[in-house]
Amino acid sequence: MVFEERAAIESFWQARQAGEFFPQAWFDRLTIDQAYRVQLGLIARRVAAGERQIGWKVGLTAKPIQEQFGFHEPVFGCVLEQVPSGHEFPAGSLIQPGFESELCLVLGRDLAPGADLAAARAAVGAVHPALEIIETRGPFTAQIALALADNAQQKTCVLGAPVPLPAAPEGVACTVRINDAVVATGTGDAVLGSPLNSVVWLATKLAEYGRALRAGEMVMTGSFTRQFPIAPGDRIRVEFTDVGAVEAAMRG
Fold it and tell me: Once rounded to an integer, what is the mean pLDDT over residues 84-91?
């Protein structure tokens, strides 16, 4: 079947309005490239309706997450909202929620496609300890292209206080706690060797779709550990060496 981009975006948009995020009519029909085009088209409609894109996410960067979901290359999505550390989500407000423990890099200058690691480092103005809050709105592993069309699970980001970028972000270590119990530890080198490599990859990937990284945008660089679900009553805290801590909770 021939892919017609505008018709596909309209079809996904109408399904979204009806609460269907993985429209069954599109199962097994999209390539990854087509999925990104649908994603960007849907984000453009959401922005036209009053939302605001504030940055980007890079996902599936750490080996534990790639193994968790059976997909072995990075992916991107768009970030449209953020909340501060300490935010408490009402029970029932999220669809099969989970979280990932990440660094959020804020760009102090534009970054051109083809940029190297040094250029990416120079472009970063600040870094936040962060949680990406995700929703599993459909069969992610079985329909990865539909998951990308649906903005790669993105819901929101929880950000701690900004600090300067550490000299060696790949060496930053994190400790993940749920309800005071340590459930995982990780280091920045799990993220494509360095969280800065996520920015390098993203700058080049976005150029394929006529987009570019701009000063002021945030980039969620990918999780240090596997993804964890969030249940009512959970309290989450992640501590990053040389960066700080970030917290969130869901009411019981």
Answer: 97
